[in-house]
Design goal:
Blueprint lengths: L8 H24 L7 H17 L9 H4 L10 E3 L8 E3 L2 H14 L10 E7 L2 E8 L2 E7 L5 E3 L2 H4 L16 E9 L2 H13 L8 H9 L4 H5 L4 E10 L7 H11 L8 E3 L2 H14 L7 E8 L2 H7 L1 E2 L2 E2 L2 E5 L3 E14 L5 E12 L2 E7 L3 H7 L6 E6 L6 E5 L24 E3 L6 E3 L6 H12 L11 H9 L6 H4 L6 H4 L7 H13 L2 E3 H7 L7 H11 L2 H10 L6 H8 L5 H11 L2 H11 L3 E3 L15 E5 L7 H10 L3 E3 L8 E4 L5 H9 L2 E4 H7 L4
Parallel strand pairs: 2-13, 21-22, 23-24, 23-25, 25-26
Antiparallel strand pairs: 1-6, 3-9, 3-10, 4-5, 4-7, 7-8, 10-13, 11-12, 14-15, 14-17, 15-16, 17-18, 19-20
The structure holds 2-(butylsulfanyl)adenosine.
Length: 689
């Protein structure tokens, strides 16, 4: 008898197609809907059958198979999610003094008398990555990473695979509830994962935090499902009804809803008790199965939290008190001089790789010439390196006793290593700077990288490596060239690893940014000392780019009204002001800005607070001792109502709010005819009397 006829290739291909469909459906049921319909064993046999068939079929048949992608077909990229309530970061405290300052600052802001209590909750800071989970009517509907704090990535499918995150809340909860917390991995799970990765000759993770981040940011949720991720809840985003009146109450409510919350926690009354708690948990660290990088302190009363509000990206009512730095000894193999975006020559230490508290360190900053001289660090030296939390590793000192006899001090270069132009050190400054400006390739490339970065133009698809290549190939030399990339579209499609889709995605990402808010634009220019917060202040104050430019040109004269106006903006001191003014008076920079303006539509800055108030758009100065509000609270409240708060009186000032013992500002206001209000007048004006 002849054997039964073998299935034809065609019918095998059809069976494979059917299997793929079934597997994809079960992947979604299991990982995204938490509602499997078949047993794991049955699922495995579907996959095995598919793999068998694919071994027989010609390879092009398996290209889009789940057996290649392991699980549901991956999305091309994560969708973006706008956070309805921004996800903030925290300021840091490193010493007892910082902690005492934090408590004093809060007491002062809230105008608390010595007799009034201030409760502060302390809990561990988990070293993972933050995530926001949105529940509607008790069901988990969306999960997002932090991203830039305003917009994160949709990782819902991945989060559905994390077993200690409730998919349905226990008990009753507000209709809308966003729970924020940390995704992390225990040290034991991390070790096991790395062992498995090593066995499979796969990527080894440097520490549990990186492993957790890498596992969460998988386009394929079935990979995440196999990674041992865990979650602690510690804060709320949007809620349709209050959950509690205190931070401690939030912890208790979260626990009741089915979340793990960071342990141990304590509610204390003063800085000394915070320090004691910090020390105690630090001592317990080896016994805690996951990494902590400090203690987070939070004002317990939510009403106080609301009054305290935020400073740029961090709440006033909370701070992260970091654990002391970890140290290790290694060898300094070389000192490389890097050229920054603004031309600063920064020495970077290349180290023999060493494990410093769980992170392999092979680079450290040496800051500047003086730092190298002061520490007398030489190439070849044995050195002590340290790292604390997420800060860049540093060299603490060298060990001269281990030095060879022929070692010589490091000679700091006097020319730029990237463009060979002279590098100068300006008197009174620590930095040595390349004089090449945008003609220096290193500065130009760093500027471009900054320009497209997340908080600036945020152009996806233009990573550091591509920017460097485009620069070297003279496709992009100045920021405006990015907006002329369409002319190279056909050529780009022929680059290795590129195709129609990647080019059209890149073009779409660029086109989407032709219209840009003024604050982002200013930040993207990469002006020395102008970060996101300062860029926002400039945008708010000057409103349009032409006005900013004319004023900065007028401000060349340090005695001009324009310069005085600039330094009257809160937090812009003379040094920052000089950097801003010199940027806008540099012909090379202005040519690059003109070039950009021809490509872009720059939108006036729109502040988050949209409601009109009697002081919206007015410039206010506070002086003297206010009785009802702390000075900082008064300023914060005015800004929240749309007013600009300035540090000194000028002809642009609308109101001077004068408390007790107001001094020279009163005189200035009288001279300029600026309206002076008492604290009560001010409160009546803003409707808070
Ligand atoms: S509270 C508005 N509590 O630390 C304040 N954050 O450095 C929200 N983190 O972005 C944060 N453990 O990712 C808070 N117990 C804890 C935390 C914690 C870890 C992270 C969080 C935050 C970052 C700030």
């Amino acid at each position: 008898m002849s054997p039964p006829p073998k299935k034809s290739v065609k019918s095998l291909a059809m069976e494979a197609a059917l299997l793929r469909e079934q597997i994809a459906r079960h992947d979604i049921l299991y990982h995204q809907q938490d509602a499997p319909e078949i047993s794991d064993a049955d699922y495995d046999s579907l996959r095995r059958r598919l793999e068998e068939i694919e071994k027989i079929l010609p390879p092009e048949n398996s290209l889009f198979s789940p057996s290649q992608t392991v699980g549901a077909k991956p999305a091309a990229a994560f969708a973006k999610v706008r956070h309805r309530v921004p996800m903030l970061s925290l300021g840091n405290a490193f010493s007892g003094e910082d902690v005492a300052d934090f408590v004093d600052r809060i007491r002062k802001f809230l105008n608390l008398s010595a007799a009034e209590n201030l409760e502060i909750l302390a809990e561990p800071k988990i070293d993972g990555l933050s995530c926001s989970l949105r529940y509607e009517n008790g069901k988990l509907v969306q999960a997002a990473t932090r991203g830039d704090g305003e917009e994160g990535e949709d990782v819902t499918a991945n989060i559905m695979t994390v077993s200690d995150i409730p998919k349905t809340l226990q008990g009753s909860a507000p209709d809308i509830l966003e729970v924020r917390g940390e995704i992390y991995m225990t040290r034991a799970d991390f070790d096991a994962l790395n062992a498995a990765q090593a066995a499979a000759e796969d990527k080894i993770f440097a520490n549990p935090r990186n492993a957790a981040a890498g596992s969460l940011r998988q386009l394929d949720p079935t990979i995440t499902a196999r990674r041992p991720l865990k979650f602690f809840g510690y804060a709320l985003g949007e809620t349709s009804a209050p959950l509690a009146e205190t931070q401690d109450g939030i912890r208790r409510a979260l626990a009741q809803l089915g979340f793990n919350v960071p342990q141990p926690a304590a509610t204390v009354q003063d800085a000394a008790e915070l320090m004691a708690f910090h020390e105690n948990v630090y001592g317990q660290r080896p016994d805690i199965p996951y990494d902590l990088d400090g203690i987070v302190y939070k004002v317990n009363d939510l009403d106080f939290q609301r009054r305290l509000g935020f400073i740029s990206r961090a709440p006033r009512w909370s701070i992260a008190h970091k654990f002391p730095a970890e140290q290790a000894e290694t060898v300094l193999e070389n000192i490389e001089i890097q050229v920054s975006r603004t031309g600063t020559l920064t020495p970077v230490a290349h180290l023999k790789p060493v494990n410093v508290g769980g992170v392999i360190v092979s680079r450290a900053t040496l800051h500047n010439q003086d730092e190298i001289a002061r520490k007398d660090v030489r190439i070849g030296d044995h050195v002590i390196v340290q790292r604390a939390g997420d800060v860049i590793p540093q060299i603490v000192r060298s060990l001269p006793e281990k030095r060879s006899a022929n070692s010589t001090p490091f000679a700091f270069p006097q020319t730029c290593p990237a463009c060979q132009r002279p590098a100068l050190r300006i008197e009174d400054e620590a930095a040595t700077r390349c004089t090449g400006g945008l003609l220096c390739p290193a500065q130009a490339v760093e500027r471009l990288k900054h320009f497209v970065s997340r908080l600036a133009f945020d152009i996806e698809g233009l990573g550091d490596k591509i920017i460097r290549e485009f620069y070297d190939e003279e496709i992009v030399r100045l920021p405006a060239d990015i907006f002329r990339l369409a002319a190279h579209a056909e050529a780009l499609k022929t680059r290795e690893g590129w195709g129609d889709l990647s080019v059209s995605n890149l073009m779409a990402a660029i086109e989407a940014r032709r219209s840009i808010a003024l604050d982002r634009f200013i930040y993207a220019l990469g002006i020395r000392q102008v970060g996101q917060a300062t860029a926002k202040k400039l945008a708010l104050h000057y409103e349009t780019l032409p006005r900013l430019r004319t004023d900065m040109q007028a401000a060349m004269d340090g005695d001009s009204a324009a310069f005085l106006n600039l330094i009257a903006i809160d937090d812009i001191g003379p040094a920052v002001a000089r950097d801003i003014v010199s940027f806008f008076n540099d012909p090379q920079q202005m040519a690059a800005v003109d070039d950009l303006c021809a490509e872009l539509d720059i939108q006036p800055y729109v502040r988050l607070q949209t409601s009109e108030s009697p002081v919206t758009g007015k410039t206010v100065v506070f002086t003297g001792k206010l009785a009802r509000l702390g000075r900082e609270e008064a300023k914060a409240q005015a800004e929240a109502l749309g007013a600009k708060v300035a540090g000194s009186v000028s002809k642009n000032t609308d109101y001077l709010v004068a408390g007790e013992d107001a001094g020279s500002k009163m005189k200035k206001a009288a001279e300029l005819g600026v309206m002076v209000l008492s604290e009560d007048d001010w409160l009546a004006l803003i409707g808070a009397a």
